[in-house]
Amino acid sequence: MPRALRNYPPGTCLHLVQRGDNGRPCFHDDEERAGFRLLLKEHGVKAGCDIHAYVMMSNHVHLLVTVRERNAQASMMKSIAQRTALWHHKRHGGGGTMWHGRYHSSQIDSEAYLLICQRYIELNPVRAGMVDLPGAYKWSSYRANAEGREDDLLCPHPVYLRLGGSELERRRAYRALFDMSCAQKDLERIRFAIRGDTALRAPVNR
């Protein structure tokens, strides 16, 4: 059954996931991760996508973005796929793409879930057993959002900015979110939404 057409208006916040071809690594070293980060910045700006959070795992990537133009994420992801194919062929030979099909997308349709999803993204290396603490992983947005390290790729979301009246207050409040474990029901909702390319909404109490 084909997936529904994705048609996101300006202002939509999205959780995007792109996986390596057939589960294979999409990054082989830090040079490739740094190159991908530069492509994200370049094509995010060109397409009109504000990037709020990211993590580059060995065989997949998570992004939290807001589109400033309708379906801007499609332009960004298409451009990145084309550019990464070129340098992947140059470094490793062969042909085709380094990605497995098209990216998955889930609309964040609830402010209550935006920071939960952002935290989910930045905790990926911890859940994968790669590090004990999210700040120990270099290739994510955690160290910028939580610790104040400079990262010109990022554009903070208004929900994040409302965490405090100053940068220090926001970072302190954001770090406090990581002191709480993610509820299993939230993990399941995020995973279900991204697998099905559906909206992530707060549950309705009946």
What does it look like?
The protein is α+β, with helices and mostly antiparallel strands and 206 residues long. It has a single domain, classed as Transposase IS200-like (Alpha-Beta Plaits). It has eight helices and four strands. It has helices at 30-47, 72-92, 111-122, 124-127, 142-147, 158-161, 167-177, 184-196; strands at residues 13-19, 49-56, 60-67, 104-107. Strands 2-3-1-4 form a four-stranded antiparallel sheet, sandwiched between helices. A hairpin with a 3-residue loop joins strand 2 and strand 3 (60-67). Helix 1 (30-47) runs antiparallel to helix 2 (72-92). The chain is globular and about 50 Å long.
Brief digest:
With 206 residues, the chain is α+β, with helices and mostly antiparallel strands.
Q: Given this structure, which CATH class is correct?
A: Alpha Beta
Q: Total number of β-strand segments?
A: 4
CATH superfamily name?
A: Transposase IS200-like
Shape: globular
Largest sheet: 4 strands, antiparallel
Query: End-to-end span in angstroms?
Result: 31 Å
Strand order of the largest sheet: 2-3-1-4
Distinctive features:
Alpha-Beta Plaits; 206 residues; single chain; 4 strands; 8 helices; alpha+beta
Question: What are the SSEs and their pairings?
Answer:
Layout: E1 13-19, H1 30-47, E2 49-56, E3 60-67, H2 72-92, E4 104-107, H3 111-122, H4 124-127, H5 142-147, H6 158-161, H7 167-177, H8 184-196
Antiparallel strand pairs: 1-3, 1-4, 2-3
